[in-house]
Amino acid sequence: MPDSRCDGGGKIVMGIRRTTAAAVLLAGAITVFAVTAAPAAAPAAAPYGKIELRVDGGGGTRDEGLAMPLRILFFLSLLSFIPAILISLTCFTRIVIVFHFLRQAIGTQETPSNQILLGLALFMTIFIMQPVGQKVNEEALQPMVRGEITETQALDRGIIPVREFMLRYTRKADIALFLNVSHTPKPAAPQAVPTTVLIPAFMISELKTAFEIGFILFIPFLVIDVVVASVLLSLGMLQLPPIVISTPFKVLLFVMVDGWNLVVGSLVKSFY
Protein backbone atom coordinates (compact mmCIF):
# COMPACT_ATOMS: atom_id res chain seq x y z
CA MET A 1 0.00 0.00 0.00
CA PRO A 2 1.54 3.25 -1.03
CA ASP A 3 2.32 5.86 1.57
CA SER A 4 -0.26 8.67 1.50
CA ARG A 5 2.35 11.13 2.76
CA CYS A 6 4.58 10.39 -0.20
CA ASP A 7 1.69 10.91 -2.58
CA GLY A 8 0.85 14.19 -0.89
CA GLY A 9 4.46 15.37 -1.07
CA GLY A 10 4.73 14.48 -4.73
CA LYS A 11 1.58 16.39 -5.51
CA ILE A 12 2.97 19.43 -3.71
CA VAL A 13 6.26 19.26 -5.67
CA MET A 14 4.41 18.87 -8.96
CA GLY A 15 2.22 21.83 -8.07
CA ILE A 16 5.27 23.99 -7.34
CA ARG A 17 6.87 23.02 -10.66
CA ARG A 18 3.72 23.80 -12.60
CA THR A 19 3.40 27.20 -10.85
CA THR A 20 7.03 28.07 -11.62
CA ALA A 21 6.67 27.12 -15.28
CA ALA A 22 3.52 29.19 -15.59
CA ALA A 23 5.27 32.20 -14.01
CA VAL A 24 8.20 31.88 -16.44
CA LEU A 25 5.86 31.69 -19.45
CA LEU A 26 3.90 34.70 -18.20
CA ALA A 27 7.08 36.77 -17.71
CA GLY A 28 8.29 35.86 -21.20
CA ALA A 29 5.00 36.87 -22.74
CA ILE A 30 5.02 40.22 -20.95
CA THR A 31 8.60 40.88 -22.14
CA VAL A 32 7.75 40.08 -25.76
CA PHE A 33 4.67 42.28 -25.60
CA ALA A 34 6.63 45.18 -24.13
CA VAL A 35 9.34 44.94 -26.80
CA THR A 36 6.90 44.79 -29.70
CA ALA A 37 4.57 47.47 -28.35
CA ALA A 38 7.31 49.96 -27.28
CA PRO A 39 7.83 52.98 -29.56
CA ALA A 40 11.10 53.64 -31.36
CA ALA A 41 13.97 54.48 -29.04
CA ALA A 42 14.34 58.18 -28.42
CA PRO A 43 17.71 59.77 -29.12
CA ALA A 44 20.12 59.92 -26.21
CA ALA A 45 19.64 62.92 -24.00
CA ALA A 46 22.29 65.58 -24.12
CA PRO A 47 24.67 65.62 -21.17
CA TYR A 48 24.11 68.14 -18.43
CA GLY A 49 27.44 69.87 -18.95
CA LYS A 50 30.64 69.69 -20.92
CA ILE A 51 34.20 70.68 -20.07
CA GLU A 52 36.43 71.49 -22.98
CA LEU A 53 40.21 71.79 -22.62
CA ARG A 54 41.53 73.64 -25.64
CA VAL A 55 45.04 75.04 -25.90
CA ASP A 56 44.51 77.00 -29.08
CA GLY A 57 41.87 77.58 -31.68
CA GLY A 58 40.85 74.57 -33.69
CA GLY A 59 39.69 76.51 -36.72
CA GLY A 60 36.14 77.42 -37.57
CA THR A 61 34.43 80.24 -35.80
CA ARG A 62 36.13 79.83 -32.44
CA ASP A 63 38.55 82.48 -31.28
CA GLU A 64 42.13 81.50 -30.80
CA GLY A 65 43.41 81.30 -27.25
CA LEU A 66 42.94 79.34 -24.06
CA ALA A 67 39.61 77.70 -23.29
CA MET A 68 37.68 79.04 -20.31
CA PRO A 69 38.75 76.32 -17.79
CA LEU A 70 42.39 76.90 -18.71
CA ARG A 71 41.90 80.65 -18.41
CA ILE A 72 40.51 80.23 -14.90
CA LEU A 73 43.42 77.94 -13.99
CA PHE A 74 45.90 80.44 -15.44
CA PHE A 75 44.55 83.41 -13.50
CA LEU A 76 44.26 81.43 -10.25
CA SER A 77 47.90 80.41 -10.64
CA LEU A 78 48.81 84.02 -11.36
CA LEU A 79 47.14 85.13 -8.12
CA SER A 80 49.37 82.78 -6.13
CA PHE A 81 52.45 84.39 -7.71
CA ILE A 82 51.41 87.98 -6.95
CA PRO A 83 53.58 88.25 -3.77
CA ALA A 84 56.62 86.97 -5.67
CA ILE A 85 55.92 89.33 -8.57
CA LEU A 86 55.48 92.26 -6.18
CA ILE A 87 58.80 91.58 -4.47
CA SER A 88 60.85 90.64 -7.54
CA LEU A 89 59.67 92.98 -10.30
CA THR A 90 58.82 96.24 -8.52
CA CYS A 91 60.34 98.81 -6.17
CA PHE A 92 58.69 97.19 -3.14
CA THR A 93 61.92 95.59 -1.91
CA ARG A 94 63.86 98.86 -1.74
CA ILE A 95 61.09 100.67 0.12
CA VAL A 96 60.55 97.95 2.73
CA ILE A 97 64.26 97.59 3.52
CA VAL A 98 64.73 101.36 3.87
CA PHE A 99 61.77 101.54 6.27
CA HIS A 100 63.28 98.71 8.30
CA PHE A 101 66.64 100.49 8.56
CA LEU A 102 64.86 103.70 9.54
CA ARG A 103 62.99 102.01 12.37
CA GLN A 104 66.16 100.38 13.63
CA ALA A 105 68.07 103.67 13.46
CA ILE A 106 65.46 105.52 15.48
CA GLY A 107 65.38 102.67 17.99
CA THR A 108 61.61 102.43 18.35
CA GLN A 109 61.68 98.63 17.90
CA GLU A 110 58.10 97.78 16.77
CA THR A 111 56.83 101.31 16.11
CA PRO A 112 55.59 101.80 13.44
CA SER A 113 54.34 98.22 13.26
CA ASN A 114 55.07 95.88 10.38
CA GLN A 115 51.50 96.20 9.09
CA ILE A 116 51.80 99.98 8.85
CA LEU A 117 55.15 99.86 7.08
CA LEU A 118 53.98 97.17 4.65
CA GLY A 119 50.80 99.10 3.88
CA LEU A 120 52.72 102.31 3.23
CA ALA A 121 55.28 100.44 1.10
CA LEU A 122 52.50 98.78 -0.91
CA PHE A 123 50.75 102.03 -1.79
CA MET A 124 54.06 103.73 -2.55
CA THR A 125 54.82 100.84 -4.89
CA ILE A 126 51.46 101.31 -6.65
CA PHE A 127 52.16 105.04 -6.98
CA ILE A 128 55.66 104.53 -8.39
CA MET A 129 54.69 101.66 -10.71
CA GLN A 130 51.59 103.44 -12.03
CA PRO A 131 53.18 104.50 -15.38
CA VAL A 132 54.37 100.94 -15.95
CA GLY A 133 50.94 99.58 -15.08
CA GLN A 134 49.28 101.95 -17.53
CA LYS A 135 51.53 100.75 -20.35
CA VAL A 136 50.81 97.12 -19.51
CA ASN A 137 47.08 97.83 -19.45
CA GLU A 138 47.07 99.71 -22.76
CA GLU A 139 49.43 97.45 -24.69
CA ALA A 140 48.54 94.01 -23.34
CA LEU A 141 45.53 93.76 -21.04
CA GLN A 142 42.93 95.74 -22.99
CA PRO A 143 43.74 94.13 -26.37
CA MET A 144 43.44 90.72 -24.73
CA VAL A 145 40.08 91.62 -23.17
CA ARG A 146 38.81 92.79 -26.57
CA GLY A 147 39.93 89.51 -28.10
CA GLU A 148 42.47 91.08 -30.42
CA ILE A 149 45.40 89.04 -29.05
CA THR A 150 45.80 85.78 -27.18
CA GLU A 151 46.96 85.35 -23.60
CA THR A 152 50.47 84.38 -24.72
CA GLN A 153 50.77 87.47 -26.88
CA ALA A 154 49.47 89.62 -24.00
CA LEU A 155 52.14 88.17 -21.72
CA ASP A 156 54.87 88.91 -24.26
CA ARG A 157 53.65 92.50 -24.66
CA GLY A 158 53.07 93.11 -20.95
CA ILE A 159 56.55 92.09 -19.88
CA ILE A 160 58.19 94.73 -22.09
CA PRO A 161 57.37 97.81 -19.89
CA VAL A 162 58.33 95.85 -16.77
CA ARG A 163 61.68 94.89 -18.32
CA GLU A 164 62.32 98.52 -19.25
CA PHE A 165 61.72 99.55 -15.63
CA MET A 166 64.06 96.87 -14.29
CA LEU A 167 66.79 97.66 -16.82
CA ARG A 168 66.73 101.31 -15.76
CA TYR A 169 67.67 100.44 -12.16
CA THR A 170 69.86 97.36 -12.65
CA ARG A 171 73.63 97.64 -12.53
CA LYS A 172 75.67 96.26 -15.40
CA ALA A 173 77.92 94.39 -12.95
CA ASP A 174 74.95 92.45 -11.57
CA ILE A 175 73.76 91.52 -15.06
CA ALA A 176 77.28 90.40 -15.97
CA LEU A 177 77.41 88.26 -12.82
CA PHE A 178 74.34 86.22 -13.70
CA LEU A 179 75.35 86.01 -17.37
CA ASN A 180 78.65 84.45 -16.31
CA VAL A 181 77.04 82.12 -13.79
CA SER A 182 74.47 80.86 -16.31
CA HIS A 183 77.09 80.67 -19.13
CA THR A 184 74.88 82.87 -21.28
CA PRO A 185 76.57 84.74 -24.15
CA LYS A 186 76.73 88.48 -23.72
CA PRO A 187 73.75 90.04 -25.51
CA ALA A 188 74.28 92.66 -28.18
CA ALA A 189 71.88 95.12 -26.51
CA PRO A 190 70.46 95.51 -22.98
CA GLN A 191 66.98 94.74 -24.33
CA ALA A 192 68.22 91.28 -25.31
CA VAL A 193 69.09 90.30 -21.73
CA PRO A 194 67.06 87.20 -20.79
CA THR A 195 64.34 87.77 -18.23
CA THR A 196 65.67 84.93 -16.08
CA VAL A 197 68.94 86.88 -15.79
CA LEU A 198 67.40 90.32 -15.44
CA ILE A 199 65.13 89.52 -12.48
CA PRO A 200 67.82 88.34 -9.99
CA ALA A 201 70.18 91.07 -11.19
CA PHE A 202 67.49 93.67 -10.53
CA MET A 203 66.84 92.27 -7.06
CA ILE A 204 70.45 92.43 -5.88
CA SER A 205 70.77 95.91 -7.37
CA GLU A 206 67.75 96.99 -5.34
CA LEU A 207 69.23 95.40 -2.22
CA LYS A 208 72.49 97.31 -2.69
CA THR A 209 70.68 100.60 -3.22
CA ALA A 210 68.47 100.01 -0.18
CA PHE A 211 71.49 99.28 2.04
CA GLU A 212 73.22 102.44 0.83
CA ILE A 213 70.17 104.53 1.74
CA GLY A 214 69.92 102.76 5.09
CA PHE A 215 73.55 103.54 5.88
CA ILE A 216 72.96 107.25 5.19
CA LEU A 217 69.89 107.20 7.44
CA PHE A 218 71.87 105.65 10.29
CA ILE A 219 74.53 108.39 10.42
CA PRO A 220 72.61 111.25 12.16
CA PHE A 221 71.01 108.90 14.69
CA LEU A 222 74.37 107.25 15.36
CA VAL A 223 75.83 110.66 16.17
CA ILE A 224 73.11 111.18 18.77
CA ASP A 225 73.86 107.77 20.33
CA VAL A 226 77.58 108.56 20.56
CA VAL A 227 76.97 111.99 22.12
CA VAL A 228 74.54 110.61 24.70
CA ALA A 229 76.86 107.71 25.57
CA SER A 230 79.81 110.09 26.01
CA VAL A 231 77.82 112.40 28.29
CA LEU A 232 76.60 109.54 30.46
CA LEU A 233 80.12 108.14 30.68
CA SER A 234 81.54 111.52 31.73
CA LEU A 235 78.86 111.83 34.41
CA GLY A 236 79.63 108.37 35.75
CA MET A 237 76.12 107.06 35.01
CA LEU A 238 77.31 103.67 33.82
CA GLN A 239 74.21 101.79 34.95
CA LEU A 240 71.86 103.84 32.78
CA PRO A 241 71.50 102.45 29.22
CA PRO A 242 72.27 105.19 26.67
CA ILE A 243 69.31 104.11 24.51
CA VAL A 244 66.90 105.23 27.22
CA ILE A 245 68.13 108.82 26.84
CA SER A 246 68.96 108.82 23.12
CA THR A 247 65.65 107.44 21.82
CA PRO A 248 63.55 110.50 22.80
CA PHE A 249 66.15 112.80 21.24
CA LYS A 250 66.20 110.77 18.01
CA VAL A 251 62.41 110.83 17.79
CA LEU A 252 62.43 114.59 18.46
CA LEU A 253 65.04 115.17 15.74
CA PHE A 254 63.08 113.04 13.25
CA VAL A 255 59.86 114.93 13.94
CA MET A 256 61.51 118.37 13.82
CA VAL A 257 63.02 117.78 10.36
CA ASP A 258 59.76 116.22 9.08
CA GLY A 259 61.52 112.92 8.58
CA TRP A 260 58.70 110.96 6.97
CA ASN A 261 58.30 113.61 4.30
CA LEU A 262 62.01 113.58 3.57
CA VAL A 263 62.38 109.78 3.52
CA VAL A 264 59.28 109.05 1.48
CA GLY A 265 59.98 111.93 -0.91
CA SER A 266 63.56 110.82 -1.43
CA LEU A 267 62.47 107.22 -2.10
CA VAL A 268 59.89 108.31 -4.68
CA LYS A 269 62.32 110.70 -6.37
CA SER A 270 64.93 107.96 -6.61
CA PHE A 271 62.71 106.24 -9.22
CA TYR A 272 62.16 109.36 -11.36
Structure description:
There is one protein chain. The chain has helices at 4-37, 68-80, 82-89, 92-106, 114-128, 130-145, 151-168, 172-181, 195-234, 242-256, 259-269. Helix content is 72%, strand content 0%. It has a domain at 81-215. Helix 4 runs antiparallel to helix 5 (114-128) and helix 6 (130-145) runs antiparallel to helix 7. It is built from 11 helices and no strands. It has 272 residues and is mainly alpha-helical. The model is unreliable at 1-13, 26-46 and 48-65 (pLDDT under 50).
Please sum up the structure shown:
The chain is mostly helical.
Task: List the keywords.
11 helices, mainly alpha, disordered N terminus, elongated, 272 residues, 72% helix
Topology overview:
Blueprint lengths: L3 H34 L30 H13 L1 H8 L2 H15 L7 H15 L1 H16 L5 H18 L3 H10 L13 H40 L7 H15 L2 H11 L3
Helix pairs in contact: 4-5, 4-9, 6-7, 8-9, 9-10
Radius of gyration: 39 Å
The fraction of residues assigned to DSSP E strands is under 5%
In whole angstroms, the N-to-C terminal distance is 126 Å
Mean pLDDT: 76
Q: Approximately how much helix is present in the residues?
A: over 70%
Oligomeric organization of the protein chains: single chain
How does the major sheet shape up? Answer: none
Low-confidence spans: pLDDT under 50, at least 5 residues?
Answer: 1-13, 26-46, 48-65
Order of helices and strands: HHHHHHHHHHH
